[in-house]
Design brief:
The protein has about 350 residues and is of the alpha/beta class. Helices cover about 45% and strands about 15% of the residues. The longest helix has 17 residues.
Length: about 350
């Protein structure tokens, strides 16, 4: 067994800095009331000795745990298969790391996990929660509100007990969808279809509304419900070709759905974009750059969405907003989207 050197103590830091143990404790644990010259002496001693503050002691002083729960209302198989979640987690992680806060990832495999997540949040383990990929009948918002932790949501809230002051970050899903469909119209396409996302999520509903904003009273047979997955895109595209063989354009609710639709079009001998133009949504480069042809899509800054969610939560915590629904809490933030033209449309 390898022997390890003893960890430096508060007393050792105090001796090296020439101050009291209480002064060192206030400096390293975020307390106030220490003159700046003494703060600098303590910090130099901490660096020289390699002292690591005890988080438990720090939390007694600051009443902060320096940890944030990230709750994704999806099963593990979906989270690790969809690049969207990785991009959002990367933005969250970067922001939390910059503020010396830890990320605690909580997934929900099914309804039995909701109570477990609520108990964890209510147990005082984290300073707040970032919650996304919620479904309209999801009990998590109410459970999280009951847990009493500051929360920022990813996506526009639309559950039954949603507060007008719910703090959230979303993209302009409806506007992005309008831009995609208008582009297809400008290409002279007449039979434009939409493969939706899961319609129990507000992003899918908003993108469907954007499609309808442009297409008005489009043939209902040109709208097929899917689930944001490649397999769902394949199923929906086959259904479209069966019942609407003259379709000449498809707006898919996300890039993964579009990738599935492209595979079916290729199998069926339909040329893209000559016979059928295809547009996705997200601009996830691992997907959009690798489709054949490269995918025209609506870009949303997924990583920035995650970073901004974390920033809003941390800002609220720093200001002492224990209730994120307080009157002075920031409202929802909608990030812009842009159409990125590539080979598919």
């Amino acid at each position: 067994m390898t022997e390890t050197a003893p960890r430096p103590t508060l007393e050792a830091v105090a001796a090296l800095a020439g101050v009291s143990r209480a002064t060192v404790s206030r400096v390293v644990n975020g307390g106030e009331g220490v003159r700046e010259p003494l703060v600098q002496r303590v910090r130099r001693a901490v660096e020289e000795l390699g002292y690591v503050p005890n988080r438990a002691a720090r939390s007694l002083v600051t009443r902060r745990h320096d940890a944030v729960a990230v709750v994704i209302a999806e099963p593990e198989s979906r989270v690790f298969a969809d690049p969207f979640f990785g991009l959002q987690l990367r933005g969250i992680s970067k922001e939390l790391t910059a503020h010396d806060s830890q990320l605690v990832l909580l997934l929900t495999e099914g309804r039995d996990d909701h109570a477990r997540v609520a108990r964890y949040l209510a147990g005082g383990h984290v300073d707040g929660a970032l919650v996304f990929s919620l479904h309209l009948d999801d009990p998590l918002p109410g459970l999280i509100r009951g847990a009493g932790v500051p929360t920022v949501f990813g996506g526009r809230p639309d559950w039954s007990d949603a507060s007008d002051r719910s703090v959230y970050v979303d993209s302009d899903n409806r506007g992005g969808a309008r831009a995609a469909v208008r582009h297809l119209v400008s290409l002279g396409r007449k039979r434009i279809a939409h493969i939706t996302g899961a319609l129990d999520q507000t992003s899918a509903v908003d993108r469907l509304d954007g499609f309808r904003d442009v297409m008005g009273d489009a043939d209902p047979g040109l709208i097929v419900e899917s689930d944001f997955t490649p397999a769902g895109g394949e199923r929906a595209m086959r259904e479209l070709l069966d019942r609407q063989p003259d379709v000449d354009a498809v707006f898919a609710a996300n890039d993964l759905t579009a990738s599935g639709a492209l595979r079916v079009l290729r199998e069926c001998g339909r040329r893209v974009p000559e016979d059928v133009a295809v547009i996705g949504f997200d601009d996830m480069l691992p997907v959009a750059d690798q489709t054949d042809p490269p995918l025209t899509t609506v870009r949303q800054d997924i990583e920035e969405m995650g970073r901004l969610m974390a920033s809003l939560l941390l800002t609220g915590l720093d200001r002492g907003h224990h209730d994120q629904n307080a009157p002075d809490a920031p409202p929802g933030v909608i990030l812009p989207t842009t159409l990125v033209r590539r080979g598919s449309a």
